[in-house]
Amino acid sequence: QVQLVESGGGLVHTGGSLRLSCAASGFTLDYHGIGWFRQVPGKEREWVSCISASDGITYYADSVKGRFTISRDNAKNTAYLQMNSLKPENTAVYYCNVGSRWGQGTQVTVSS
């Protein structure tokens, strides 16, 4: 079964950290770019970060630059999003994306 499964979300205080994981099954991540998005109720899904397939070049939305780090472990067929210095406005459901595939999302809640 081809799927992406996110995990690692939770409740943290302002300034805290979380590491999200995106585990792929049924296909390999090796040759795919990977993206992280987030969405809050009533708003459009927002791009957060992505990492290229071949050379691992990373890109970030300005709002998370310097605080979030995207990475991939092809041996584990998993991508990660390390989130540091979290703020209440980072509260959202976070999704990973590979091509047309989306995970089910993981909730991140940052309390003030």
Outline the secondary-structure elements.
Blueprint: E1 3-7, E2 10-13, E3 18-25, E4 34-39, E5 46-51, E6 58-60, E7 68-73, E8 78-83, E9 92-98, E10 101-102, E11 106-111
Parallel strand pairs: 2-11
Antiparallel strand pairs: 1-3, 3-8, 4-5, 4-9, 5-6, 7-8, 9-10, 9-11
The low-pLDDT segments are: none
Largest sheet: 7 strands, mixed
- How does the overall form come out from the CA principal axes? globular
Continuous helix count:
0
Secondary-structure element pattern, one letter each:
EEEEEEEEEEE
Mean of all residue-level pLDDT scores: 96
Helix content: under 10%
Rg is 13 Å
Number of strands: 11
Written description of the protein model:
- By secondary structure, the chain is mostly beta strands.
- It contains no helices and 11 strands.
- The protein has strands spanning 3-7, 10-13, 18-25, 34-39, 46-51, 58-60, 68-73, 78-83, 92-98, 101-102, 106-111.
- The strands form 2 sheets. Strands 2, 4, 5, 6, 9, 10 and 11 form a 7-stranded mixed β-sheet that branches.
- A hairpin with a 6-residue loop joins strand 5 and strand 6 (58-60).
- The model has no long low-confidence stretch (mean pLDDT 96).
Question: Top keywords for this entry?
Answer:
4-stranded antiparallel β-sheet; mainly beta; globular; 7-stranded mixed β-sheet
Give a concise summary.
The protein has 112 residues and is an all-beta fold.
